[in-house]
Amino acid sequence: MRTRILRVAAALAAMVLPAACALTTPRDLETWNETDAAAASAAARERPSPSCLTGSPMPEPSPDRGGGWRVAYYDYRDRLAGLAVTREGTVWAAGTRVREPCGPETRSPLLLRGDGERWREVPIPPMEPRAVAASSDRDVWLFGEEAAARWNGRRWTTAPGPGADLKQVHAAAPGDVWAVVNANFLDGAGGAEEPWSSRADLRHWDGTAWRTARPPLVAKDVDGLPGGAVWAAGSSRGRAALARWNGWSWSAVPLPAVPALHRDQLSELVDLAVDESGRVAAVGWVAWVCGTQEEDVTYCGRTLFLLRENGRWSYSLPAEPELDPHVGLEADGRGGFWLFYSKNEWNTAVGHLSGGRWTYGTFPAGPLGHTRVAAVAREPGAARVWAAVADTTEQEGPPYRGGGIWLGE
């Protein structure tokens, strides 16, 4: 199952952990398991006694907070960045945890496992978790900055990471994992002095090593159903493009013409989603350089939505967002799709396509009020979408941050 790492996750991943939480890699990571975890520092496992909170650092999960979403898990100590859901219905969430929600940001690695009602921490090899992907509960991948580890249901084994600056990862099956690394996105001007050019590398774990894949496009996302075909979305020569992996080779998918909005336009697809009904959707942008003075030159454009329904592909231009190169997409399990995009610098907005019509709103806020979605994943075969969120506040007193998992049904 693919995990989507949205824009806020990239910001979280860029933060450098303090030296106080630096970890030493054990000599035998191949045998890192719960026995090793039990011998770890007692201080790292000590549950905090938050001085700035009158109750637990884990408030009770809330009822529906609007739009069909509810809080399934929340902790003021957590900073979640990655999320995956297996076909068994298990949610895996990766990130870091601070010892004291009202104290210094001294962090330790965190991997949570749960079903929406019960959650527990899973001992992991020493690394700074940035993303997680899983095809089943016996094939879970955890990614740090440079290294990776795989859980087979009994123990962790380590592997090299796919490369720097991980953007997307999809576990199709055991021994079949895809990762997008070194990708750039349409930010800032870029057209004032030289044209913007898309770049990214697609890596494939074939059971023994990461190898560079050569799809017929610059891939910005990769996704598929467990055990099914793998799809890649991106661009080719400045135009939105899609490709399909059949288990042996990549092939370009014939698509209709992108809507013509400007004579010098560029287009790209940056996220995609697949459901069990055969629908495949992708979202991206159409953009062009606009502005009359060098300091005002930027990109204008629209959101581009691609849908395959009943075997036919079609493009449309949703009303929102106007242009967000980091827009995210997930199937809702009922034949529709969710869009996740920036409402402002603090909050995430959502769009929902259902019955051929888009509706829009703000993603439900957490206890601190400024809530951004870091990663989303749908439970395979179900109409349950999970979101890992980062929650912040501008209030004068702590706690200033928290993390949680929202469930949309």
What does this entry look like structurally?
The strands form seven sheets. Strands 1-12-13-14-15 form a five-stranded antiparallel sheet, with no helix packed on it. A five-stranded antiparallel sheet has the order 2-3-30-29-28. The chain has a four-stranded antiparallel sheet with strand order 4-5-6-7. The protein is globular, with a radius of gyration of 21 Å. β29 and β30 form a beta hairpin. The protein has one domain: YVTN repeat-like/Quinoprotein amine dehydrogenase (Methylamine Dehydrogenase, Chain H). It is mainly beta. The chain is built from three helices and 30 strands. The protein starts with a strand and ends with a strand.
Question: How would you summarize the topology of this molecule?
Answer:
Blueprint: E1 2-4, H1 7-14, H2 34-38, H3 42-45, E2 64-66, E3 69-75, E4 78-85, E5 91-98, E6 107-114, E7 119-121, E8 131-136, E9 139-143, E10 147-151, E11 156-160, E12 166-173, E13 176-181, E14 201-205, E15 210-212, E16 218-224, E17 230-236, E18 239-245, E19 250-252, E20 266-274, E21 280-290, E22 298-309, E23 312-316, E24 328-331, E25 337-342, E26 348-354, E27 357-362, E28 370-378, E29 385-392, E30 401-408
Antiparallel strand pairs: 1-12, 2-3, 3-30, 4-5, 5-6, 6-7, 8-9, 9-10, 10-11, 12-13, 13-14, 14-15, 16-17, 17-18, 18-19, 20-21, 21-22, 22-23, 24-25, 25-26, 26-27, 28-29, 29-30
Signal peptide: 1-22
Region (Disordered): 36-65
Keywords: Signal
